């Protein structure tokens, strides 16, 4: 059963009033594939827009905090921690991993997914002048803990 649908079939925000406050965390990832020359430019600090990884990190953190403004029916949450890491991988990719935490009545999966997605979009935006063919891929939830549904860990993807 989809929890965002009421008895009349209408979309609604889930009522979490009766849910227990627990420690919750979620980690999501995204990959950005680009030309090797684009990644070299980023790593060497020669990009005309400056440190694009730092800007993408800040954008991801800000996005996590603004998730209810971006995703309908998401609860506004008091996040206690948001961490966004961007790591060059191989000759042509950047791996983005975002982790959100709180003590609350609902999970932070959407906040982590939003953070990873917006960080990837920001990286694209800052580099599109030199590489319009970048590919954002494999945005997914890696792990979540806390709450009634318990712990979840995604299976490894061999293609990344």
Kindly state the number of beta strands.
Answer: 5
Quick one: biggest sheet?
A: 5 strands, antiparallel
User: Any guess at the CATH architecture?
Assistant: 2-Layer Sandwich
What structural class is derived from the secondary structure elements?
A: alpha+beta
Number of domains: 1
Q: Describe the global form.
A: elongated
Terminal CA distance reads 32 Å
Name the poorly predicted regions. Answer: none
CATH topology tier name: Alpha-Beta Plaits
What is the H/E order?
EHHHEEHEE
- Count of runs of 4 or more consecutive helical residues: 4
Question: Quaternary arrangement of the chains shown?
Answer: single chain
- Rg computed from alpha carbons, rounded to a whole number of angstroms: 17 Å
Please, what is the average pLDDT? 90
Summarize the structure in words.
The chain has 160 residues and is α+β, with helices and mostly antiparallel strands. The chain has one domain (28-143): Alpha-Beta Plaits, CATH 3.30.70.640. It is 28% helix and 29% strand. A five-stranded antiparallel β-sheet has the order 2-3-1-4-5, with helices on one face. Helix 2 (52-65) runs antiparallel to helix 4 (109-127). The longest helix has 19 residues, at 109-127. The model has no long low-confidence stretch (mean pLDDT 90). Residues 13-147 form the Molybdopterin cofactor biosynthesis C (MoaC) domain.
